[in-house]
């Protein structure tokens, strides 16, 4: 676990006596305390499994379990009140268990709906979905100015590291397919502000996603396609497709027809109920 977690150096601390654990925890910060306790908890679980003649969990399996579990706790702490199941939040490792006090307080706003593109153009909506168990999926819907589906797809994603990677992949694959299935100019919409900002930022990107961001920028330049951040309520169609891919492992595409699974969403987008 020391390869991925900042665990205390027991050799340097040399804890002793019946309060050895308290001595260790006293010298740790809040996040390191959590990592230490969770590691001990997993060791105890493995001990119990062997005691009861059950297969011992693998080291890699235990590592993945603990990392995923701690990430879930960090999300709950950093994003109180958010829906963890949607997998939209990106963890700030430096922030740890502290809440982000710079985040604006939630305020009421008018619900937004999908808006059709201007005449003679198309609009591409994309979304990525990620859960802490590693499952991920992407969804994309390309529509014309009448709201008719020109192309739609959902795709399961393997070996996805986090929610941001899923969102970036959704934009990349969506734009790539849109370039293939229409000759019209098109706008790209995503509800992930971090992904949109990374792609639109003028300075070179040196993050782990640098290559993917560079590819997306090249795709967007082919038609001078603007990339726009929208609210979640205006992105329901691609969100539902991404969720299908993540939860059901679906890999499907529809050309010129509306996917049956999102027909109600598409109809609502074209005929929104005005509250």
Q: Could you name the ranges where pLDDT drops below 50 across 5 or more consecutive residues?
A: none
> CATH topology of the largest domain, anyone?
Nucleotidyltransferase, domain 5
The spatial strand order of the largest sheet comes to 5-4-1-2-3-6
| Secondary-structure element pattern, one letter each | HHHHEEEHEHHEHEH
Oligomeric category: single chain
User: What does the largest sheet look like?
Assistant: 6 strands, mixed
CATH superfamily of the largest domain: Ribonuclease H-like superfamily/Ribonuclease H
The name of the CATH architecture of the largest domain is 2-Layer Sandwich
State the helicity in percent bands.
Answer: 40-55%
- Pairing-aware structural class of the strands and helices? alpha/beta
**Portion in beta strands:** 5-15%
Task: Please work out how many helical segments DSSP would assign.
Answer: 9
Protein name: RNase H type-1 domain-containing protein
GO molecular function: nucleic acid binding; RNA-DNA hybrid ribonuclease activity
